[in-house]
Amino acid sequence: MALTKHRGVKIKGIVNVIPELTEDNLQLTIINKEERVKLVEHTGIRYRRISSLPVKNLFARGIKEAMELTGWNYDEIDVLICVTQTPELSLPSIACQLHGDLGLKQQTICYDINSGCSGYVYGFHTVASILSSISKDKPRALLCCGDVSTHLLSPEDTSTRPIFSDAISVTAIEYNANDNNITARFNLETMGSGQSAIYTELNAQNNKIMRLNGIDVFAYSVKYVPQNIETLIKSAEIPDEMPNLYVFHQANKLINDAISKKLKLTSDMVPHTLEIYGNTASASIPITLCSRLNEMNNWILLSGFGVGFSVASVLVKVSDFVPHKTIEI
Amino acid sequence: MSLPLHEIETFLDFTSSELSISKNSISLETCFRDIPSWSSLNALIYISRINEETNVLITSGDLSELNSLQDIYGLINERKHGIN
Known about the structure:
The complex is a heterodimer. By secondary structure, chain A is an alpha/beta fold. Chain A has helices spanning 33-43, 55-70, 94-102, 119-131, 214-236, 253-262, 274-277, 284-290, and strands spanning 2-7, 9-18, 22-24, 47-49, 77-83, 109-113, 140-147, 167-175, 182-190, 198-202, 208-212, 246-248, 299-306, 310-317, 324-328. In chain A, the strands form four sheets. In chain A, strands 6-5-7-8-2-15 form a six-stranded mixed β-sheet, with helices on both faces. In chain A, strands 1-9-14-13-12 form a five-stranded mixed β-sheet, with helices on both faces. A two-stranded antiparallel ribbon of chain A has the order 3-4. In chain A, helix 5 packs parallel to helix 6 (253-262). The relative contact order of chain A is 0.22. Chain B has one domain: ACP-like (Non-ribosomal Peptide Synthetase Peptidyl Carrier Protein, Chain A), CATH 1.10.1200. Chain B has helices at 8-18, 40-54, 60-64, 69-79. Chain B is built from four helices and no strands. At the A-B interface, helix 1, helix 5 and helix 6 of A face helix 2 and helix 3 of B.
């Protein structure tokens, strides 16, 4: 395990960008009608979003909205991290492309992280670590997370198509060098033995296609996520302020319910957005978090898990109101 | 553990219910892949229900080495003491 703690890091705003185009799993003709109903019941996923735009364009829109939401200026951005596994181009990084497109300052640290369903927490950890290393009182970062996973799907694949959905999220994060309070504690882990649970392969047309082994994703998630979270909470030593909100990556209902049950969580502690947005990879945590951000809260737990096999959880203190918005494009 | 799946009758009742097949149509000798309702979705639901009832986790690697319901029953009993 890698347990880390960070002082003075705060979420200052979240913008989610969701494509308007929607597919309904109850209308999905690649499976029979009886199985469609069963699929929606057990995965919890009714609707999925499809983006015709590349992920970079969704990030650009999210950043523009985030700047308006926070009142930040482009020349105040010290760090831009993009977490995605579906870049349109292998190089240069999306962060560097956006740096050029948005006219960010030369001193901005920009790079991409290749990470999927655990990517929001990994990205948050990266941003927290970089910000605290910058010689400045209040450095600022934008963390862009998300994928256009549907661009990797085979239309006939009954394992992946009913699950994956497109969306992105941009989180504005600020570090206060004068705040000595611990505001984030992470537990980051990797189980590479599970690398075949989710992967891409080339089809006959040389296109990358995502493959999913649902049984192994279930087994790895249920085996490793609860113990990752329990270890984090135990190490945090905050018994009087245990989190009352657990925001999980939105994998599917079977997995998320099994994890909740192992952790003995009640349904009011575990928000979900699976039914309306599906599995939106690294965007699913901030999208789901925003559904409960108006009722704060103190310590909340965020946990991402999936492709890798990778598991990452963070206890983050959210004591002030966090402005947020979700837009459809 | 909720259901005593280590008991043969309970295991067959459970399997019959979860895979939507008459109990008279299956026995421990039945090859689970031959059950008409066996699909990737139903297999996942079945495996998740076994975990819910017994805390036993079964992987795709395990399944590839198993053939009959007897094999699954045996694996549940082998791992029921918390070995995942």
